[in-house]
Amino acid sequence: MANDSAQSDVAAALARIPSGCSILTVDGPAGRTGMLVSWVQQAGFDPPAISVAVRKNRPVEGLIDAAGAFAVNLLGENPSSMFRHFGKGFGAGEDAFAGLTTRTVPGGVLLDDAIATLQCRVAGKHDAGDHWIYFGHVRAAAADSDARPYVHLRKNGLGY
Fold it and tell me: Is the pTM of this model over 0.85?
């Protein structure tokens, strides 16, 4: 950026973009895991598609690439238990789902505590600088129509 003032303006403007938090999961030949993600967005109608951002070099990247699929579990208004569970991250081979009620589906893991789930086949992967943007065609989904999603604004749009 040209100067600190311009960078501050960009950070403030980006922070006004609302986002939620979801749990991205993958289950495939290279392993399985789950992680918190905050950048999930609908990306198409026909076929139904979503995009999800994953910071580069996260272990989940190779698992998604190998599986060719992933699942997104949307969190409700009170996500604290999921934040506590998934916020710490998981090492290679560590069971990301220990103590949770889940269901394994092709390419991912669905969490019983999610207010909605999306099972996706990878349709593309785009380099976005420090993140990869995965595009997924939705193969199956479910939602609790009465539940409200968790939504937040960042204090600074240039960092978590």
Answer: yes
